[in-house]
């Protein structure tokens, strides 16, 4: 058996750390996926309507819910509150609801417009 150089040992340790972090990230993301599926069912039961999509927002742990393919509703993970209306980013004063809901409907380059409108300081968007 050949002995490893210090550089090879360091590289092997770095790869091992990355694999452990990747495994942990995967393990912790699985419950989130299950929770989102349960949340979708709970919102559907509460609204009595089909949920087209459900996405976690970076705002106060709220989820953005598309119901009936045309309504935007915000809720928390326990569906203890349903917010109907526009969500405004307090720092930028941008209407998040318009950027995520209307731009994709109105324009072929809507993803770029949405990202630029929501995240102008990050190289023109995400």
TrEMBL record:
Record domain Disulphide bond isomerase DsbC/G N-terminal: where: 33-97
TM spans (from-to): none
Signal sequence, start to end: 1-34
One Pfam family per UniProt: DsbC_N
Keywords (A to Z) from UniProt: Signal
Any coiled-coil regions, as ranges: none
Domain of life where this protein originates: Bacteria
Gene Ontology CC terms: periplasmic space
Keyword Secreted part of the UniProt annotation: no
Name the record gives this protein: Disulphide bond isomerase DsbC/G N-terminal domain-containing protein
């Amino acid at each position: 058996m050949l002995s490893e150089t210090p550089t090879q040992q360091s590289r092997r340790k770095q790869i091992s750390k990355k694999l452990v972090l990747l495994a942990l990230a995967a393990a912790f993301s699985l419950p989130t996926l299950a929770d989102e599926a349960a949340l979708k069912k709970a919102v559907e039961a509460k609204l009595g309507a089909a949920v087209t999509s459900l996405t976690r927002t970076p705002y106060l742990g709220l989820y953005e819910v598309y119901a009936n393919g045309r309504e935007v509703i915000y809720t928390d993970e326990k569906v203890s509150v349903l917010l109907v209306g526009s969500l405004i980013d307090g720092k930028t004063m941008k209407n998040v609801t318009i950027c995520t809901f209307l731009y994709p409907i109105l324009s072929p380059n809507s993803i770029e417009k949405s990202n630029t409108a929501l995240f102008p300081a990050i190289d023109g968007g995400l």
